[in-house]
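Design a sequence for this backbone.
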């Protein structure tokens, strides 16, 4: 199964740690996994695990931020390209 996980960033913290662990576990079960975020300190860990990171400009605390709207187009293109 192809799975895309989305988070605002990959810096140390609860949700990014969960996303990293979830991606690792899903890959271990044989799934194709991608993570999309604004980037952060843990991008290298994804690379070491063989998980592709897609950088998108989504780091914001507001779901109504224009960043979310513009990131949607980037994500849709990526999803279509990878057939996720």
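Sequence:
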């Amino acid at each position: 199964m192809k799975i895309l996980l989305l988070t605002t960033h990959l810096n140390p913290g609860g949700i990014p740690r969960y996303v990293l662990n979830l991606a690792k576990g899903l890959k271990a079960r044989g799934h194709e996994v991608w993570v999309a975020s604004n980037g952060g300190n843990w991008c290298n860990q994804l690379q070491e695990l063989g998980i592709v990171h897609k950088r998108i400009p989504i780091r914001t605390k507001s779901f109504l931020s224009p960043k979310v709207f513009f990131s949607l187009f980037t994500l849709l293109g990526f999803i279509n390209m990878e057939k996720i």
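The chain has one domain: 2-82.
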